[in-house]
Amino acid sequence: MEMKAENNLTELELPVMKNGKMTKEKTRIVPITADLIIDRENVRLQAVNNLPPVDVNQSVYKIGPHDRLLITVWEHPELNDPGSEKIMPELAGKVVDDDGNLYYPYVGNIYLAGKTVSEARTLLTNELSKYFKKVKLDLRVLSFQSHRAAVVGEVKTPGIQAMTETPMTVAEAISRAGGVSADADMSNVALARDGKLYKIDVQALYEKGSSTQNLLLKDGDVLNIPDRKDNKVMMIGEVGKQQALQINKGRLSLSQALAEAYGVDFNSSRPGEIYVIRPGDMNPEIFQLNAESPDAMILADQFNLQAHDTVFVGTAGVTQWSRVLNQILPSSFTSVMSRAAFMGM
Q1: Are 20 and 26 in contact (CB under 8 A)?
Q2: Residue 342: which H helix or E strand, with range?
Q3: Which InterPro entries does the UniProt record give (predicted)?
């Protein structure tokens, strides 16, 4: 294999998505430089910070349909659940209907959806005060049913998590789901909210204390923890061992990948032709590292690879010629020629 390029463009035309339509064009080969790494790091940081804004109202529970409320009016037992009967916990209290209304004696239907427990308590107290003097009323939520979030993917017990008076964060939702499995990719957790998809780096939350990633969940959110089995990088060309490398904890730099593939064979390779081929989502990219100077490995260490990348190390011309001879000439003759070349004959 040999990477052929003209005017820093690929030899082949590749499928590309542009303006919502598929087309084909040659892809530009981009040198890996300090400017490139700085630009891409700024883009990454912008994406990390491009999370949904924090809604302070999410920190306070709002009553909604299907919530079961326990209302106690002191000194008026006739308004409470009959004390002489044993009521099962799941049947105690009163349920907010689909329209957000709650029926209560004397008051009739009262709309409580979207109100906090404190607001609902005040509203009911005011309404009952029209019929009774010095009303002392207590209200609490027995069963939280109106606000839910789904936790799916690589967790031990995926399913629906009900939100309570304690705000539910990303970390708490994962904990409630039994924690993640051994194959979870914590650096690429996806949050689906209001028709949009957000990437959350939970690994950074656990390892670096990045609290910005620990979002408060809201009703209807879907948290998906993907697996990392498919997060691999292919190492081909003049490396010590051609193989597929696993990306662990969301990070694998180009220098780490080359090292894990037992390095670059400088006897048979072209150090100036180390390519990272990235298929993307119908948006292919190709990067080239010129490693003829050892300090280029600093750039390689700062260039992070992504899942499905292919790292290709070009073959030196003399190595290609030697391999051709090995294929068309007898091995004994090739051995003699090699010895002659070594002895300067």
Answers
A1: no
A2: helix 331-342
A3: Poly_export (IPR049712), Poly_export_N (IPR003715), SLBB_dom (IPR054765)
Q: Read off the pLDDT of residues 243-255 as tens digits, 9 standing for 90 and up.
A: 999 998 888 999 9
What percentage of the chain carries pLDDT values higher than 70?
85
Are the C-beta atoms of residues 215 and 190 closer than 8 Å to each other?
no
Q: Note the helical H segments in 235-277.
A: 254-260
Q: Do residues 131 and 146 lie in contact, with contact meaning Cβ atoms separated by under 8 Å? A: no
100: which DSSP letter? S
pLDDT tens readout for residues 33-58:
999 999 999 988 887 667 887 666 66
Q: Is 9 exposed, middle or buried (0-12, 13-18, 19+ CB in 10 A)?
A: middle
CB 162 within 8 A of CB 147: yes
SS3 assignment, position 321: helix
pTM above 0.70, yes or no: yes
Element (H, E) at 44: helix 34-49
Domains of the chain in sequence order: 5-31+230-321 (3.10.560.10), 62-138 (3.30.1950.10), 147-225 (3.10.560.10)
- DSSP letters of 269-288? EEEEEEEEEE-TTT--EEEE
